[in-house]
Design brief:
The chain has 334 residues and is an alpha+beta fold. It is 37% helix and 21% strand. The chain folds into 2 domains: 76 residues; 180 residues, Cupredoxins -  blue copper proteins (Immunoglobulin-like), CATH 2.60.40.420. It has 8 helices and 14 strands. The protein binds copper (II) ion.
């Protein structure tokens, strides 16, 4: 019977491995990474996957081989034990066959094996801990994040306020007027002050939306992330961005897209159509970029999904911002 178990285990493992191998080709894998730092995240991911995958397959294969080779069998010395009373029980008094050859030498010295499986993972983990520092610093260190172009040299990032709540993303943008000032009046102390106040102070003409995150291509976006209730996790898989939002804290998150998704307005100009391929004129799942919550945050967690729209240019973004303003702002009193 033991042999059948080993075969069942082996076949299951091979099937799982095959499933894993084909999944990138049938769309069950990570989406394309399209931010400036996504390659460094992917590199670490594939490196760790390679190491863990190698040892996983090795240990599972060994387990199946050992199960097959050293399983109990009916031929093993059968003994009959006489129990008191009416019961007579039969059981296998089985001792495993002796392991011979070079493998016996290794197995007979458990100290060496234990040293190996302690020291080797420790070295690998330590190496990973140091190797990821640069990637982490670029993505998470606030001191390295893009900021307002104080010296008129760099460009000003787009700044957006994202507030999570059960179960939606509330997203606040500056008004188009303010946005243009941020982008054009560089090195102006007054604008710097205004730029820095955005995250803390809401203004009447801010543009507010739910579950719609708009940015534009090749330009850094800094999101000020907070939550109104419990912990949520802001997750943009295409940008390789994931950050918990913590009650009582405002945490900046940033990314720069290097690709835009093909987005378009509905015929009446009211709704953004998700996933549109201009070549086939059909819906394309690869063009739908999710903004999801990666932290189980209550029963409605599953529907805490927004969309990321990366416009082609700053002008496209500005046009969009103005179009939203035109619909949302009440007419100004004269
Ligand atoms: Cu959530």
């Amino acid at each position: 019977m033991g042999k059948w178990w080993s075969i069942l285990f082996g076949v299951t493992m091979i099937a799982c491995t095959l499933l894993f191998v084909v999944s990138p080709f049938v769309g069950w894998w990570l989406p394309e990474g399209v931010s400036t730092h996504s390659w460094s995240v992917d590199l670490l991911f594939y490196f760790i996957l390679g190491i863990t995958g190698f040892f996983f397959i090795l240990t599972e294969a060994l387990m199946c081989i050992f199960m097959y080779r050293y399983c109990s069998s009916e031929k093993a010395g059968r003994t009959v034990a006489h129990a008191p009373g009416f019961f007579v029980r039969t059981y296998n008094k089985w001792t495993p066959p002796a392991i011979k050859g070079s493998i016996a030498k290794v197995l007979n010295d458990p100290h060496k094996i234990e040293m190996a499986w302690t020291v080797l993972p420790a070295v690998i983990l330590l190496w990973i801990a140091f190797a990821q520092v640069d990637a982490w610093a670029v993505i998470k260190y606030q001191s390295r994040m893009p900021r307002y172009a104080e010296k008129n040299q760099e460009f000003t990032p787009l700044q957006i306020d994202v507030t999570a709540r059960q179960w939606e993303w509330r997203i606040r943008y500056p008004s188009s007027e303010r946005f243009v000032e941020w982008m054009t009046r560089k090195g102006d102390p007054e604008i710097l002050k205004d730029f820095q106040s955005f995250a803390k102070i809401e203004q009447k003409d801010d543009v507010k939306l739910v579950n719609e995150l708009h940015v534009w291509n090749h330009h850094p976006a800094v999101l000020q992330l907070s939550t109104r209730d419990v912990i949520h996790s802001f997750n943009l898989p295409h940008m390789r961005v994931k950050q918990d939002s913590l009650p009582g804290k405002q945490i900046p998150v940033w990314f720069t897209p290097i690709k835009h998704n093909t987005i378009r307005l509905s015929a009446d100009g009211d709704v953004w159509i998700d996933g549109y391929n201009p070549d086939t004129k059909a819906q394309d799942r690869n063009q739908i970029w999710d903004l999801s919550c990666a932290e189980l945050c209550g029963w409605g967690h599953y529907r805490m999904v927004g969309r990321l729209y990366v416009h082609e240019s700053q002008q496209d973004f500005l046009d969009w911002l103005k179009s939203v303003e035109a619909k949302m702002l009440p007419p100004r009193a004269k």
